[in-house]
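>> received
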Amino acid sequence: MDEDKAKIPRTLALVVGIIYTLLGILGFFITGFENFAAETDKTLLGFEINPLHNIVHLVIGLAGLALSRTLATARTYGWLLAIGYGAAFIYGLFAVGNSDLNFLSLNTTDNILHLVSTLVGLAIALFPVRNQPATRRGA
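>> returned
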């Protein structure tokens, strides 16, 4: 295994963890704890949020911080991101514009972030870290 390449999934998991932790914390300064699971018009950097959405970001962020310590746990985090945010993206396609379904207060910008987070999760989970085998030269 190439140790430098092995750092890439761990570093990505750490960076994603930091970003989502900060989004979760900063979100509470905007939403407080009112309208916990309701669609709101409150946004952070263009992303619609509510307190439940902030908690989700905080949990995902803290998981990234904790799971970035080893390659195996970073890859697990990558799969969690890919599956969780893949599901959130699909949910968001139906929830945006439908107040009855939109308990996370999502908007189109959130859906784009969820799709990007899915792809980043796949990158963390699948990034190659092994040295390429030496090719045999013919005589």
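>> The chain has a mean pLDDT of 93.
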